[in-house]
Amino acid sequence: MTAPAAEQDPASRWWRDGVVYQVYPRSFADSNGDGVGDLPGLIDHLDHLAGAADSLGVDAIWLSPIYPSPMLDGGYDVTDYTAVDPVFGTLADLDRLIEECHRRRIRVILDLVMNHTSNLHPWFLQSRQSTTGPFADFYLWRDPSGWDGDGRPEPPNNWLSWFGGSAWEWEPRRQQFYLHTFLPEQPDVNWRCTALRAEMWSMVRGWLDRGVDGFRLDVFNAFLKAAEMPSNPEIAAGGSIPWDSQEHRYDKDQPELHDLLAEFRRIVDSRPGTMTVGELFTSGIDAAVAYWAPRHLVFDWVLLETAWTAASFRAAIAAREAAWSGRWPAIVLSNHDRSRHVSRYLDTLGRHDRATADALAKAAATIELTLRGTPFLYYGEEIGATDIAVPRSRARDRAAVRMADWWNRDGCRAPMAWTADATAGFTSGRPWLPLPSDAASRNVEQQRASERSVLAHYRRLLALRRGSTPLRTGELALVDVGDPDVLAYLRRAGDEVTLVVVRFGLRGGEIELPRAAWPWRAVLSSLGPVTPTVGSRVEVRPLEAIVLER
Ligand code: GLC
Description:
It contains 16 helices and 20 strands. With 550 residues, the protein is an alpha/beta fold.
């Protein structure tokens, strides 16, 4: 694929060459002692991210939603798309954040939640009143399919809510049901309504005018449902959650979505240097690839769902390379919806000690920052954070509580540990979720002071990636180094070649390096200083990742 002229300019290629860092604003840094992170707190900690000598060195931040919200779904239930929730600050704080980020060459990506609003959004408050009026069609209203023996209305079809139960909620005032793919308090908007569309696009233009550099699109592939809304086919042997008992043929991934996305992308593309990333909702990698376009990335979940074994990672990387051939993937190991990757990998290994956690964090980071694609780091992973245990009595994620035991998102949303203080330098008050239990010994301040820390390894990797054409843009080829416990791949750009080898298990051993590119020079090991010159064989210690160049 030949890149258009604008793509040759490094400033507009950051969506491909850069590294994005996800901030969960409630949990990053609290400036006013209310126990909840906020924008001024984030501004105070920008040097951690970029612009100072000892910064991590990321290129962009994606902020999970900062809009006014009753917070039933962590801010993914929005009551005003054009403002900032007072708990996070003001629009003036956001302007200052954008300015401070740009001064440090950090781009700012906002989270757009355009599949649904909060049921307290003024549009919905009006829409639910009556079947006429300017907002009547802003949501997906349908008549009951019938009435049961007790005179109760029956839902229009069999669609399910992702959070459990029917996707339909009855509104007595309209004598109709409305659709909610998520919580009943998150009604889905009607993208076939031109007035709704116009409101959304003017909101998008407004944020671009304010200086944001792009958007993450929440569950974008659910925006359009089949116009006639037929029931979904049932699957006899459904999966582990009720949602999996149906084939979701009619409630997401509709063909007309491509035209809708094209409208959105034209608006974004009219501003040079912007990008978007779409969050794919429960669809597979082929769907992700089909929605992709230059400057418009799409998450697939293959890597995030891969277990910590060399064989699983090899298969995942092969599947992704095949699917994304000629296109550009995103790389994600953790986010605000899943258990943190170090916790998952520790469980696989059946070990929970500090040394194993650190070694895993570094080895995983090496993969994340050397694969082909744009890495999305999740706040805290750069210090090797693991999930926290949240007792049910302190659970804050209402949606997860409703899903009973199989999903707890509070665990991956702990306050960031900045210092060894009693409140981890996160707040002067009572944190909204428990602090990580190891905050006194696993925090930014301590790791900044140690060359052997997880943080130091992330910084080295980011610097290496920035200076390496093969790591940023090269082709990827898996190689067999004769040891099933070692994942190995080459990144190649012209004559420049980089080799990455990673051992997943707890028993070390020597491997044979690929002959094609001898002699190799080791440039980085996750376990400490390297001896640059290596022969034809190299020792790979337990959980060690080594980067070599020719
Ligand atoms: C996305 C968000 C998740 C939220 C859901 C509904 O999947 O990442 O946190 O619960 O959308 O908005």
